[in-house]
Design brief:
mainly alpha, 434 Repressor (Amino-terminal Domain), 6 helices, 66% helix, elongated, Helix-turn-helix
Length: 89
């Protein structure tokens, strides 16, 4: 599964086994295991407050960049504009 939220939790589980379980990981994030499952499977997008907590407890700041680049309408638009802008010498 290539979902970045799932990958971040698995990476966090390498340093803390509590993250191996969606039940305990969800408790640390403050959401149900069902909600975490839905986020990790791409069935639901995380709310911004959930995202901030996940990035902190998983020690995964890359989740913030992913959200901004891929999910946030403003971030997606900025990325598109940056990709179209010619490189300056």
């Amino acid at each position: 599964m290539a979902n970045p939220y799932y990958q971040a939790r698995l990476h966090a589980a390498e340093r803390d086994t509590a993250f191996e379980s969606r039940v305990s990981a969800g408790a640390m994030v403050g959401i149900s295991s069902t909600r975490l499952y839905q986020i990790e499977r791409g069935l639901q997008e995380p709310h911004r407050d959930e995202l901030l907590i996940m990035a902190e407890v998983y020690e995964a700041p890359e989740l913030l960049r992913y959200y901004c680049d891929m999910m946030c309408p403003v971030g997606r638009r900025l990325r598109e504009l940056e990709e179209k802008r010619p490189l300056r010498e």
